[in-house]
Amino acid sequence: MSLKDVFLYLSENEVLNSAAQKYGLQLGAQSVVAGTNIDEVMESIKALNAQGISCTVDNLGEFVYDKEHALQAKDNILQVIERIHTEGVDAHISLKPSQLGQDIDEAFCYDNLYDIVKAAHAHGIFVNFDMENYARLHSSFTFMERLLEQFDNVGTVIQAYFFEAMDNLEKYKDVRLRIVKGAYKESADVAYQSKLDIDQNYVKLIEYHLLHGKFTSIATHDHNVIEHVKQFVAQHDIPKDQFEFQMLYGFRKEMQLQLAAEGYNFCTYLPFGNDWYGYFMRRLAERPQNVALVTNELLTKKTKTLLAVGAGAFILGRLSKK
């Protein structure tokens, strides 16, 4: 049993997710989310913009199984788009197709995505499709491909732990891409399992897209990867306007400011809303070292209790299967 397995189990536990929503602010959620409503996230955007940092905004949402909740999520995202436009801030949208009905009805989901992308396009705002587990991967790519037939403000994420990641990177090299390591538990049939293999493929993907791609968003908190990228772009005369570094809100704040001050494009990923728990657990699963980055701010006594209960449930579940 690995620490990653525990965090992934916690991210998929609806009971703990509901408890975290109810007591989010008391648990210290404000350390990892940029607000619980649109007004608060707009203030977070303005504060970061003032420090030379752009933002991508994610309206958090888990376990969307009915059209009512999907339509509510769409409405929230449309409101964010309108506020970005009217207030003239430097920000774009990140969204998950699953929150907009991907697991309910694909035609319904596409219609929701279309409305969002169309509204964003009218204001010159970019929309990034976040990627989730392998079961949703190819339908998410299909959504993007259909929308790219009419709009040019859509991009997506390539996850380095998938064997097919390089094929997808080459296929979509003319699309703005965010490159990540991957944060879900995937089968050995489709994904690398060792950290070394994932890390090596991650750097390989970054280098390829920097040399051949349209625009590269390098999403990492790993200072070793960041230093490697700095050296690589200098060696290959890659201009700074061809890429950006990305980190999550609340993580490595000093490094975010330092990179922006050094003249690199920097974008902070801003999740907002009460549904923060699954998102945060996946970030810890993706890189358990992230615990140390927010421990002092996030892990209140109540948070530790919630994590302990979840870990205990995970262990009992594993033992019951033996």
TrEMBL record:
The keyword Isomerase does not apply. Pfam families: Pro_dh. It is an enzyme of class 1 (oxidoreductase). Keywords: FAD, Flavoprotein, Nucleotide-binding, Oxidoreductase, Proline metabolism. Its EC number is 1.5.5.2. Substrate binds at K96, R282, R283. The keyword Nucleotide-binding applies. Residues 42-290 form the Proline dehydrogenase domain. One of its GO terms (biological process) is L-proline catabolic process to L-glutamate. Pathway: Amino-acid degradation; L-proline degradation into L-glutamate; L-glutamate from L-proline: step 1/2. It catalyses: L-proline + a quinone = (S)-1-pyrroline-5-carboxylate + a quinol + H(+). GO terms for molecular function: nucleotide binding; proline dehydrogenase activity. Signal peptide: none annotated. Binds 1 FAD per subunit. FAD binds at M131, Q159, K181, G182, A183, K195, T220, H221. Its cofactor is FAD. This is proline dehydrogenase. The lineage of its organism: Bacteria, Bacillati, Bacillota, Bacilli, Bacillales.
